[in-house]
Amino acid sequence: MLKKVFITTMILIIFLFSLTGCVKPKPQTSEELTKIIVYLTDAPDESISEATLKVASMKLTSDSTNIELLSNYEKNFLTLAGTLEKIKEFNINEKDLKNAKISVILSPTATIVEEDKTKNISISSTEMDITVNIDSISAGRTYNLIIDFDIGNSYNSSLEEFSPIIRAWTVADTEADYRTIEGHVYDNSDLGELATPKPGRVVLILPTDNSTVLYSTITNKDGYFKFNKIKLGPGVYNIGVAKSNATFYYENDPDLGYSYYLARYIELEPATVQINISIGDQ
Predict the structure, then answer these.
(1) pLDDT, block means (10 residues), the chain with 282 residues
(2) Residues 257, 155: Cα–Cα separation, whole Å
(3) Would you say the pTM of this structure is higher than 0.85?
(4) What is the signed CA dihedral for 90, 33, 138, 179, rounded to 10 degrees?
(5) What's the confidence (pLDDT) of residue 209?
(6) What is the span of the domain harbouring residue 202?
(7) Residues in domain DUF4382 (predicted)?
């Protein structure tokens, strides 16, 4: 009798284990995954009219993932000033973003057009990693990963050197709206038709403490600028005009902030879509 009970019990245990083995793990729903939308932008240089680079490879890597963003991508990056170009969209478990970075490999030469002269400039460093801050990323939300090729500070005209500076940051999509902001830079906008436009000036959007550059573009021959469908979270920002030839990114003085390199900046309210900036003779 005991032997029969033992055999029956063992058969039951084996049956239960076989059932357990057939149960597939619950897949992660789309609501639990994080959506990442990747964009390119550029901080321009007022002294050059073209900066063409070839990105041999760009990947988002982490401890557990490797996602190709670009391959053999060639572009005049100055055309990205003041706008965003979408290059990738994917869903991912936010835990798979631990120690995330963007790995970039560039072709060895940049084509620069300066004062109507075309130059082939050797790139000092063709391979680099850019850390991505994912501390604030949560499951089930959408985030914009913005990659900025800072041409304005990568190219040194006097030395004819190109040392690539690339930045990356994230903006939560549910907190950010596409915004288009346009206007003019004048010596004095109060003069109306007598105001003198300021062509070739770098216009910047910054947080209110001027601690970093979020977006930048450059004015045309009429002093006109436009930020086209950029992502900004809620709240007030600053919009300013850099001093001519100011290397406002890498020479930032921590005591003075970026305002030291600005000819003038003013508040940019959430509802502002058109604004003119007067900078006098600067």
Answers:
(1) 52 52 50 88 85 96 94 95 93 91 96 93 95 82 90 86 90 78 87 82 90 87 92 89 69 57 89 91 80
(2) 22
(3) no
(4) 40
(5) 87
(6) 177-282
(7) 36-157
One domain for residues 170 and 185:
no
Longest dimension (CA), the chain: 110
Tokens of 129: 């990693």
Q: How many CB atoms lie within 10 A of CB 142?
A: 15
Looking at residue 76, its pLDDT comes to 96
- Whether residue 168 sits in one domain with residue 36: yes
The CATH code of the domain that includes 168 is 2.60.40
How many C-alpha atoms does 141 have within 13 Å on its Cβ side? 16
Burial class (CB in 10 A: 0-12, 13-18, 19+), 95: exposed
Q: Quote the tokens at residue 64.
A: 């557990």
Whether residue 205 contacts residue 216, with contact meaning beta carbons closer than 8 Å, is answered with: yes
Question: Which DSSP string corresponds to the chain?
Answer: -HHHHHHHHHHHHHHHHHHHHHPPPPPPPTTTSEEEEEEEEE---TTEEEEEEEEEEEEEE-SS-EEEEEEEEEEEGGGGBTB-EEEEEEEE-GGGGTT-EEEEEE-SEEEEEETTEEEEEEBS--EEEEE---TT--TT-EEEEEEEE-HHHHEETTTTEE---EEEEEEEGGG-EEEEEEEEEES-GGGGGGPPB-TT-EEEEE-TT--S--EEEE--TTSEEEEEEEEE-SS-EEEEEEPTT--TTTT--TTT-GGGGEEEEEEE-TT--EEEEE-TT-
Q: Are 185 and 46 in contact (CB under 8 A)?
A: no
Write down which residue in 175, 190, 221 finishes a domain. Answer: 175
Q: How far is CA 269 from CA 144, 266, 278, in A?
A: 22, 10, 17
